[in-house]
Write a structure and sequence with these properties.
The chain has 256 residues and is of the alpha+beta class. It has 2 domains: 2-140, Fructose-1,6-Bisphosphatase, Chain A, domain 1; 149-255, D-Maltodextrin-Binding Protein, domain 2, CATH 3.40.190. It is built from 8 helices and 15 strands. The strands form 3 sheets. An 8-stranded mixed sheet has the order 4-3-5-6-7-8-9-10, sandwiched between helices. Strands 12-11-13-15-14 form a 5-stranded mixed sheet, sandwiched between helices. A two-stranded antiparallel ribbon has the order 1-2. Strand 9 (134-136) and strand 10 form a beta hairpin. Helix 1 (2-25) packs antiparallel against helix 2 and helix 5 (187-195) runs parallel beside helix 6 (209-220). The longest helix has 24 residues, at 2-25. The N and C termini lie far apart (36 Å). The mean pLDDT is 91.
Length: 256
């Protein structure tokens, strides 16, 4: 496990350095300062800058590892593959808001091995290595023990790849269950909040690998119940994601 420990330590360090770059480039609060690449799919100067930084530093540290980024796609092949979202929550970031993060995940085929998610404006680092537990700022975290949907807090992410009517209907079903709905604008942080027990479920009807790669390793170490995102062609085309506190997993799956 020493090789994975070294990769985890490197991921934490690089996520912190990448977060510092993002903070230096962050626009001030106000109107959108970014370019649209799709429906409500924004890209900023920082997305490319941070991704290039991570690609270069990971290649220097682990030349044998592959690399995939949201902006440039698969840049290198390898038995182990780093999957990076340089700025998750760009819609928040481009307006000077705080809820965004840098996400790094290390996969071996379909198995998540290492995850690091850093929210620099919130000063929060989530991290995990397979079999070693998960932490938030170095302190161990676990998913919530919520067992009653009427006491649950659930975040639902929106995707342009699914009809708005489906999204609205899903939100209505969750609300009818008695849960409180939340929408924070960052899938990676929404999943990390489930891992830390801050909310009880995160669901999205379509999400991409780079959005979840860092969170999958973290969730796996906290007792959360997570759907098989890697099923079929999830790694290349995306899939639904549902991560839940264990005691409400069955109820959430029925709603989802």
């Amino acid at each position: 496990m020493q090789a994975l420990d070294r990769r985890l330590d490197t991921a934490i360090r690089l996520a912190g350095e990448a977060g510092a770059i993002a903070m230096r480039l962050r626009p001030p609060p106000g109107g959108p300062q970014a370019t649209l690449k799709g429906i409500q799919d924004w890209v900023t100067e920082a997305d490319g800058t941070v991704e290039r930084f991570l690609s270069d530093r990971l290649r220097e540290a682990f030349p044998e590892d592959g690399f995939q980024g949201e902006e440039a796609g698969v840049g290198r092949a390898g038995r182990l593959r780093w999957v990076v979202d340089p700025i998750d929550g760009t819609a928040n970031y481009m307006r000077g808001a705080n809820r965004f993060c840098v996400s790094l995940g290390l996969l071996e085929d379909r198995t998540p091995l290492v995850g690091a998610i850093f929210a620099p404006a919130l000063h929060e680092m989530f991290a995990a290595r397979k079999g070693a537990g998960a932490t938030l700022n170095g302190v161990a975290i676990r998913s919530a023990d919520t067992a009653d949907m009427s006491r649950a807090t659930v975040e639902i992410g929106w995707s342009a790849r699914r009809p708005d009517a489906d999204f609205i209907a899903l939100c209505a079903r969750v609300k009818a269950s008695g849960a409180v709905l939340r929408m924070g604008g960052s899938g990676a942080l929404g999943l990390a909040d489930v891992a830390a027990g801050r909310q009880d479920a995160y669901g999205e009807m379509h999400i991409n690998l780079w959005d979840v790669a860092g969170a999958l390793a973290i969730l796996a170490e906290t007792g959360a119940v997570v759907g098989d995102f890697m099923a079929n062609d999830g790694a290349t085309a995306g899939n639904p994601i549902l991560a839940c506190a264990p005691a409400i997993a069955e109820a959430m799956a029925a709603l989802f």
